[in-house]
Amino acid sequence: QVYVVFSEELKCWCRALVESVRCQADGFQLGCFLVDYAKYCSVASENIRVLAGAFAKIPHRAKKCRLHCTKPLTLHIDYCENTAKIGPAKKWDTAAIQHFRKLIE
């Protein structure tokens, strides 16, 4: 279900999907995906509202997607053997993400 949340970063109300809920000392923090900005953010529970009828039917501007059969790689350096090999990684390197964004632009 899509909700409306206040994004501190964007300083406005945005449509969002709630992906996680974390309990903290001062209340709950919601992990949200902003469907019109393709951004992830954390929102306090008091900054979430139910989306009014007609607005819920407007299509999202952003969609979550993945690159088919594309796995993250990283450079593994062995200082003892003085070698470097490209191999699988658990997550994408920051440099790889920046390079991919430049290619898209």
Automatic annotation (TrEMBL):
Q: Which residues form the signal peptide?
A: none
User: For this protein, what is the EC number?
Assistant: 3.6.4.13
Where do the coiled-coil regions begin and end?
none
Which InterPro entries would you find in this protein's record?
SNase_OB-fold_sf, Tudor
Q: Looking at the keywords, is tRNA processing present?
A: no
* Record key words, sorted: ATP-binding, Helicase, Hydrolase, Nucleotide-binding, Repeat
Q: What class of enzyme is it?
A: hydrolase
Establish whether keyword Hydrolase is in the entry. Answer: yes
Some GO term, biological process aspect, for this entry: which one?
germ-line stem cell division
Question: What is the reaction catalyzed?
Answer: ATP + H2O = ADP + phosphate + H(+)
Q: Which residues form the Tudor domain?
A: 3-68
GO MF annotations, alphabetized = ATP binding; hydrolase activity; RNA helicase activity
User: What's the protein here called?
Assistant: RNA helicase
In its UniProt entry, the species of origin is given as Urocynchramus pylzowi
Task: Provide the organism lineage as a comma list.
Answer: Eukaryota, Metazoa, Chordata, Craniata, Vertebrata
